[in-house]
From TrEMBL:
Quaternary structure annotation from Swiss-Prot or TrEMBL: Binds ribosomal protein uS19.
Domain of life from the UniProt record: Bacteria
UniProt name for this protein: Ribosome maturation factor RimM
Single GO BP term: ribosomal small subunit biogenesis
Keywords (A to Z) from UniProt: Chaperone, Cytoplasm, Ribosome biogenesis, rRNA processing
InterPro entries per the UniProt record, alphabetical: PRC_barrel-like_sf, PRC_RimM, RimM, RimM_N, RimM_N_sf, Transl_B-barrel_sf
GO CC annotation terms, alphabetical: cytoplasm; ribosome
GO terms, molecular function: ribosome binding
Organism: Azotobacter beijerinckii
Domain RimM N-terminal: from-to ranges: 14-92
Length: 178
């Protein structure tokens, strides 16, 4: 493995190595992509653990239940593979596919100010949650927000009226029942 030239700011985490698989150096991977085997489309991974960055090449991978099993070039035994447990799997942001108009990566939404139809600041999007029905925006209070409440808003067409990345805000049709 070699150090990667990409800086940590240019990377996005797409998965995590969780443990070893077998005795030949394969690793089990939890993927954050949807579908989960989309992670296998990226042949070069940057592994990150704390401040340490390492570049690896994916030789092959397969879906096994709800995890992936991957073979990395140069990792040929169980001990080498075990040393990679808990490493995040990152790729350069520039390698992510372009989205259709009106579609966003979650990372693009995080940090946006959330403003209701009356022009009141509800807070900022801290993160999103995936649920069975729809994704959920976790909106935390910030300086100037309406109150100190954390809100969970559905990321649906009915709730989200407009996303303006340039202005750093999202307009929502907010109802106190959300």
């Amino acid at each position: 493995m070699e150090a990667t030239p990409a800086s940590a700011d240019e990377l996005i985490v797409l998965g995590k190595i969780t443990s070893v698989h077998g005795v030949r150096g394969d690793v089990k991977v939890y993927s954050f992509t949807d579908p989960i085997d989309n992670l296998l489309e990226y042949r070069r991974w940057t592994l990150r653990h704390g401040d340490e960055l390492r570049q690896v090449e994916l030789v092959r991978g397969r879906l096994q239940g709800k995890v992936l099993v991957a073979k990395l070039k140069g990792i040929d035994d169980r001990d080498e593979a075990r040393a990679l447990a808990d490493y995040e799997i990152c790729v350069p942001l520039a390698q992510l596919p372009d989205l259709e108009e009106g579609e966003y990566y979650w990372r693009q939404l995080e940090g946006l100010r959330v403003i209701d139809q009356a022009g009141r600041l509800l807070g900022r999007i801290d993160h999103l949650l995936e649920t069975g029905a729809n994704d959920v925006l976790v909106v935390k209070p910030c300086s100037g927000s309406l109150d100190a409440r954390e809100r969970l808003l559905p990321y649906t067409e009915q709730c989200v009226l407009q996303v303006d990345l340039a202005a750093g805000e999202m307009r929502v049709d907010w109802d106190a029942d959300f």
